[in-house]
Amino acid sequence: MMITVLGIGGFRNEGLPFNSYCIDRRVLVDTPPDILQSLAKSGISLADLKAIVLTHFHGDHYFGLPFLLFNLYMDAQEHAKDAVDGFHRITIFGPPDLENKICQILSLAIHPDHAYISWCLEHCELVEISEGLRYPLNCGIWLEFRHSVHSPETFSMMAGLADRDKPLFAATSDTKWNESLLPLFDSGARLFLCDSNGRGFGDVHMSPEEIAHFILPRLSGNARLLATHVSQKPSFQDASLEFASPFTDYQVD
User: Fold this and answer.
1) Which residue in 208, 163, 170 sits closest to 187, CA to CA?
2) Which of 36, 219, 242, 249 is in Cβ range 3.0-4.6 Å of 223 for a Cys bridge?
3) pTM given for the model
4) Which of 1, 5, 73 is nearest to 39 (CA)?
5) d(Cα 108, Cα 242) in Å, to the nearest integer?
6) Tens digits of per-residue pLDDT, 203-226?
7) Each residue's pLDDT tens digit, 138-181
8) Closest CA to 128 of 88, 173, 98
9) Distance between CA 154 and CA 144 in Å, rounded?
10) Distance (Å, rounded) from C-alpha 15 to C-alpha 19?
11) Contact (CB, 8 A) for 29 and 49
């Protein structure tokens, strides 16, 4: 499995590409405002995407969705044969009220009566996330979700291969540290992406200090954790803590 980190920046952001990543260049997790630029810079084609996961409805995680879907819509109009073949058909996972949230943001982005809104509702499968269910995708990957400790309703996730029961990869979305997250880190995954935008202990987001104190000691020796979702280039330095790099592929076996 290949994890492509597209960006590591959080809501408060001093010029970093916004937080997002791809699994095997097929499953896109979050669509921040700069998602089209980040995908292009990483060489990931919209036509190759099979699924999009919206972890929650904060602007730095889904305000780029209207532009991504509009480009898919335009591609479908220009390449009718490919559209019939289904290259643009994408499953969109998200928290409850998913369809309403998508309609709202698409309408605000251009016009409530624009044809691409009805096109998106017709050609995208919308799946409201349920915690603990395993969702198999048609690209040989499965996804499973756990609640983060964040407002609005937010989901962290695990991903694995169809022929393996244990996940290879797990990632928190925005979250406060809480022991309810421990099953994610005890899952046996080999690679973790971890929210690290907080300061000290007890902040709204997990902090590098909390990761080093609560999480790293639990991981097996062959597991790797990458800290992400930051406001600026990381200043916290610890021999055991590694920060993810934008536009970088991370192989996990």
Assistant:
1) 170
2) 219
3) 0.94
4) 5
5) 38
6) 999 999 999 999 999 998 899 999
7) 999 999 999 999 999 999 999 999 999 999 999 999 999 999 99
8) 98
9) 13
10) 12
11) no
Tokens of 55: 């972890």
The token duo for 171 is: 């990632």
Domain boundaries, the chain: 2-251
- In the three-class reduction of DSSP (H, G, I as helix; E, B as strand; rest coil), residue 158 is classed as strand
Residue 174's contacts (CB-CB under 8 Å, 6 or more residues apart) are 10, 55, 56, 58, 61, 148, 150, 154, 195, 197, 205, 229
Strands (E) across the chain are located at 2-7, 20-23, 27-29, 51-53, 90-94, 124-128, 134-136, 141-147, 155-161, 169-171, 191-195, 224-228, 242-243, 248-251
